[in-house]
TrEMBL record:
Pfam families: GFA. PANTHER family: CENP-V_GFA DOMAIN-CONTAINING PROTEIN, CENTROMERE PROTEIN V. PROSITE patterns: CENP_V_GFA. This is GFA family protein. InterPro entries: CENP-V-like (IPR052355), CENP-V/GFA (IPR006913), Mss4-like_sf (IPR011057). Keywords: Metal-binding, Zinc. Residues 3-111 form the CENP-V/GFA domain. Belongs to the Gfa family.
């Protein structure tokens, strides 16, 4: 299934292909504050519809995840990193996807505070 996502103001837009079966709620210092619900997909499943220069990146701590957000409205639409095998992945904030109820998607807790 294809989903369309965007930030609040529409400056960042993207499409993602896949089956949204569950999400992850992380309690690390940034995810807890932002309230993101994350869906991890391969980078090849995401099509950015916004040029990279219109997206702002924030990294912290070990600097392995690039948190991508809109410089206009401040919404974090997704993060980028690598899975344990070294493959490029996106962590899609499902709260930015159109046509879904993010609270109806089953989610599990990832203990990011412990890292």
């Amino acid at each position: 299934m294809q989903y369309h996502g965007s930030c609040h103001c529409g400056n960042i837009q993207f499409d993602v292909e896949g089956e949204l079966k569950h999400a992850t709620a992380c309690n690390c210092s940034i995810c807890q504050r932002k309230g993101t619900l994350l869906w991890f997909v391969g980078a090849d499943q995401v099509k950015l519809l916004t040029p990279r220069e219109k997206i702002t990146t924030y990294t912290f701590n070990k600097k392995v995840i690039q948190h991508q957000f809109c410089p206009v409205c401040g919404v974090e639409t997704f993060g980028e990193g690598k899975d344990p095998s070294g493959n490029a992945v996106f962590a899609i904030n499902i709260r930015c996807l159109e046509g879904i109820d993010p609270l109806a998607v089953p989610s599990d807790l990832y203990d990011g505070k412990a890292i």
